[in-house]
Amino acid sequence: MKYVVFIILIFSFNLISTNALSAEITSVKIYGNKRIDNNTIYFYTKHPLTGNITQANIDQIIKNLYSTHLFSKVEVSIENDTQLIIRLKENPVINNIYIKGNKEFNNKDLKDDVLQLKALSVFTKTKLRHDISQLYTLYQSKGKLGVKITYDITDKSNNSIDLTININEGITAKIKTIKFIGNKSFTDYQLKSLLTSKEVKFFKIFSSSTKYLIDRLMIDQANLYNFYATNGFINFKVRSIISEVSDDYSSVNIIFSLEEGNRYKFGTSTIFTDKNFIGNKDIKSHLQKLIQSQQGNVFNITKVNNSISAITSYLNNQGNLFSTAKSEHEIIEKDNIVNVKYIVYTGDHVYINNINIKNNTRTLDSVIRRQLSISEGDVYNSSTVKTSQQNVLNLGFFEDVNVETQKINDNSVDLNFNVKERGTGSFDIGAGFSSMTGLVGKINIKERNILGTGKTFAIKLERSITNFSGAADLITPYFLDSNISLGIGLFYSQQKNQANEQRVLPSDTSVFSSSSMGFSTRLSHNITNNIIGALQYSYKYNHIYDVSRYASILIREQKGKNIDSSIGYSLIYSSIDNMYQPKNGIFAKIEQSLSGIGGTLHYIKTEGSATYLHPILQKINNDIIFKIKSSLGYVFAYNNEGIKIGQRFFIGSNDIRGFSISGIGPRDKITHDALGGNFYFSLINQVDFPIGLPDNLGIKGSLFIDAATLFGIDSEMHNNYDSSKSLRIAIGFGFSWKSPFGPVRIDFGFPIKQEKFDIKYVPRFSPDTGI
To answer: Domain named POTRA: which ranges (predicted)?
Structure first.
């Protein structure tokens, strides 16, 4: 009985305590608020402040006001049984936030993206502790394991402060050793080669890969899983990554603890499809052929993922835009096999509703639309959409072309081509000095998109003391709304004799005067998406006169006038990813012309070239590009005529760096005049790579090996000139720069195989066409 009485007494006491404070409030007084008005405080209490108020009500009011983070101190009491008193101390406002000692990151980025505290916001110790913790995490993720962070608060007027965060970054920890525990099937050496994190070695002392970075370790963990899962270990796990930090935070020993599990082979591979494919044996049969997971082979997660990608891509191209595929793995432990189920959800055919062109402020819609291989109403085909995107990008009018698929309903989508326009006009004016021609002035004006119509117009003028040349070209694509482009060009050039009756002349000095004028017209057509064919006609009037008596006899016999009237064709194949910044693909060209259509010259000229580009070492850097380019040309005369000097090939620095403009090929023994040749071959091998400068500078480095030869003259006077069929070879390095006026480059070539009569020249400045 006494226990019952005791329990009743305790309950009664608690009930009395809870309701001990209860008052009818008729007025409210607030003290201590300077920035925040009373009405705002009333709102933040989230409770009626008049009427019956209990202690529980007061506790809730205090809790609600603290939750706003506007106050560092809140007191609520009742006076005279009818008045509610709220006493507050406001948290200060931050005037400015200063970050000192930071070198690893941009201060603005830290303030915008990391710190919760902002200038002109309310300061709280809770947010400060959070921000300090975030900064520690950020710096340590970048290898700054010994970072020290403190702060100073400076009081200002009107309950405001300045906050200064002091950062002592310390040194970046380097990876001393990398070890593995639990690896039985592969050696430490094999596994280390998979990692982006590398141990400090003498030859890697300046490499960034030796820095201890948390993000990089996460990539390494994924690389290890992919490697093991590609080699049959589907249950592989990285149990833990242990980092042993030195006392001075300068180095780290990393230990990967691995659990390999068993090695499995592929069992059966089965496709399960939804109702859209029921009874469609042809499509299911085709999908089955796309599967790379063949029974009996070692399990390979990459082949599974590639199979899923191939299935999805095929279905997209069939118009099933919203199709998906996934794999499920059934592990049979007793047989060490994995049965793979490919589950395919096809959805319905999707049609293109509208094609919208966006952000083309200058280029006409029609110019863009004629590059599209798709039309409104077509079944959606992802391959055709990608081709259209690349076609628009290849115009060269846009920095970027992004295709957005906007779902209208389950059966239709809108395609939005979002373009970012770039400058298409250029005006170059320059001057220089050449030992051969003296002071040289150049003016180049080009617009590749006249009034947004896609037409190209270019004027080139060059003037020196002895030479003048000018050319104007107009290209009209889709001439008369056809798929044919029309090109028209006019040209004129004049070169004066520089000999002035001197016997001793620079080897590249002109020893005769010449003039040439004419026009050309060209019709081109896209035969396929990758092949362009063209027909052309050219009319040129040539005059060679004022030949120096000290010139080569092979040049003196060229004196006179002639008319070069020729027709020709060309074929171009291109799978280049970007014509203005190529990184991958093939560009090949062959052209042939027949002269003698009403003129005085009779010859056939053939030229061809092929360029291959591909990123190498993609695991290290996708911007390391290998390029190989091969070119050759041959010209021969018919009608028992010889080839005039103006129709021969002259090659040098453009084909083999380290030599002058006409640095190789037949040359007069006495005057050293370049005579040109009827046959040439050249080969360029080049690797382009980043040199560690910021990407926005657009500067890259190159290493190259060039080879070339030029020979053959229609003359029986073989004793009067030097010639050789041997390959000349040069090695060297260069730099390319994506300048505001277009890509340019400088190359330093050094011949390692040459003939005595060849002429060297270093360095070489030139536009960088990329191909």
So the answer is: 350-422
pLDDT for 322:
76
| Residue numbers in the chain where pLDDT is lower than 70 | 1-21, 202-207, 274-282, 430-438, 497-511, 550-552, 554, 619, 715-719, 740-742
For 761, phi then psi, to 5°, come to -160, 125
Rounded CA gap, 53 and 478, in Å? 84
CA distance 334 to 199: 40
* CA dihedral over 94, 100, 104, 105, signed as positive or negative: positive
User: Which pair of structure tokens corresponds to residue 734?
Assistant: 């260069």
Fold category of 20-90 in CATH: Ubiquitin-like (UB roll) (3.10.20)
720-732 core/surface letters (b: 16 or more CB in 10 A; e: else): bbbbbeebbbbbb
Cβ contacts of residue 59 below 8 Å, gap of 6+? Answer: none
**What token pair was written down for 391?**
């076609």
For residue 745, give the nearest of 659, 657, 664 by alpha carbon.
Answer: 657
Question: Which overall architecture, per CATH, does domain 174-259 show?
Answer: Roll (3.10)
Q: Which helix (H) or strand (E) holds 388?
A: helix 382-394
Give the other-Cβ count within 10 Å of 16's Cβ. 9
Spatial distance between the Cα atoms of 385 and 373, rounded to a whole number of angstroms: 7
Q: Looking at domain 93-168, which of 3.30.479.10, 3.60.21.10, 1.20.140.10, 3.10.20.310 is its CATH number?
A: 3.10.20.310
Question: Could you tell me the two tokens for 68?
Answer: 């706003």
In angstroms, the CA 353 to CA 349 distance is 13
The number of CA neighbours under 13 Å toward the Cβ of 237 is: 5
pTM: 0.55
**Class for domain 265-345, per CATH?**
alpha beta
What 3-state DSSP class applies to 350? Answer: coil
Contact of 594 with 606, CB cutoff 8 Å = no
pLDDT for the residue numbered 717: 56
Cα distance between residue 80 and residue 719, in whole Å? 128
3-state secondary structure of 436: coil
Amino acid identity at 464: S
Place of tokens 């004049």: 494
Query: Would you state the pLDDT for residue 653?
Result: 84
**Right CATH for 351-421 from 3.10.20.310, 3.40.640.10, 1.20.120.740, 2.60.120.200:** 3.10.20.310
- Residue 20: per-residue pLDDT: 52
Phi, psi values for residue 456, rounded to 5° = -115, 135
Q: Prior bond to 763 cis, omega within 30? A: yes
Q: Which residues of 42-58 are buried (b: 16+ CB within 10 A; e: fewer)?
A: eebbeeebeeebebebb
Q: Give residue 506's pLDDT.
A: 46
C-alpha 619: how far from its chain's center?
15
Distance CA 301, CA 288 (A): 17
HEC string of 327-377 equals EEEEEEHHHCEEEEEEEEECCCCCEEEEEEEECCCCCCHHHHHCCCCCCCC
What gap in Å lies between CA 416 and CA 540, rounded to an integer?
48
Q: Cα(364)–Cα(210) distance, rounded to whole angstroms?
A: 51
Neighbour tally for 34: CB within 10 Å: 9
What is the distance between the terminal CA atoms of the chain, rounded to a whole angstrom? 103
Show the CA angle centred on residue 61, arms to residues 57 and 63, nearest 5°: 115
Q: What is the 3-state secondary structure (H, E, C) of 34-66?
A: CCCCHHHHHHHHCCCCCEEEEHHHHHHHHHHHH
Q: How far apart are CA 378 and CA 578, in angstroms?
A: 27
